[in-house]
Amino acid sequence: MSTETRIKRVLMKLSPSLKEDDFEDGVKLDELFGLDSMTIIDFVAELEKEFNLTIESDGLSYDLLRDLTRLTAYIEKQASNQP
Question: Nearest 5°: phi and psi at 71?
């Protein structure tokens, strides 16, 4: 399963009303999902659990979290740096 698909599944787990086809090309996750401060914490925690990695706060930004393409690339890079 691709990294992007796994991220989508994390979002669908956190918001069961989301469906796979809600993720149109270029859709911003905050528009789709409503990322507020508590949701961001839950989202990051679920991503860390799903990918078995730690997302460092210094690499984390709202712009990163709202862009599926950038988030996918970030997680793939972090995962490749894991021992």
Answer: -65, -40
